[in-house]
Amino acid sequence: MATKKELQARTRDDYPYMLDYRTRWADNDMYDHMNNSVYNYLFDSVINAFLIEHCGLHPPSSPWHPLMAHTAVHYFSAIEYPKVAELGLRISKLGNSAVTYEVGLFEKGGGKDSKVKAVGEFVHVWVERRTQRPSPQGMDPGLRAGLEGLRDGKISNKKSLAAKL
């Protein structure tokens, strides 16, 4: 993962794929900000929305699926209900059977240059459903093509996640 200073300098332009999420009353905790578990839920949601839309993933029946190998979140400032979060997704590393995603969370309406509120890192290891092991040939070619498209900035999407959740 990048250094804390590098992560704090992230802007929306660093993320080719973005989705919006309208925070809910239930997202806040007793400290009057969005609970840390909700960040992970949102990061997982933006990753899976991308995989379903651009990589051919169909979670109930795809012959391959991801296993979560690692998660980390760097929190820089809070967001709370009733704000809208903008979630940015990029690929920071793509291996034979593993992919490292980076997700930035921004507050909508904060302006193009507003500071990132949090940055998460998720690592998926892709396995065959029947064996629960990575394929010796690596990940599915359609999956890899979608991930490479995101990594290389060829896939960009800006639509609302709120309608999907």
TrEMBL record:
CDD domains: 4HBT. It comes from Microdochium trichocladiopsis. Pfam families: 4HBT_2. The lineage of its organism: Eukaryota, Fungi, Dikarya, Ascomycota, Pezizomycotina. Residues 132-151 are annotated as: Disordered. The keyword Hydrolase applies. PANTHER family: 4-HYDROXYBENZOYL-COA THIOESTERASE FAMILY MEMBER, NOVEL THIOESTERASE SUPERFAMILY DOMAIN AND SAPOSIN A-TYPE DOMAIN CONTAINING PROTEIN (0610012H03RIK). The keyword Hydrolase applies. It comes from the Eukaryota. One of its GO terms (molecular function) is fatty acyl-CoA hydrolase activity. Keywords: Hydrolase. This is Thioesterase family protein. InterPro entries: 4-hydroxybenzoyl-CoA_TE, HotDog_dom_sf. Belongs to the 4-hydroxybenzoyl-CoA thioesterase family.
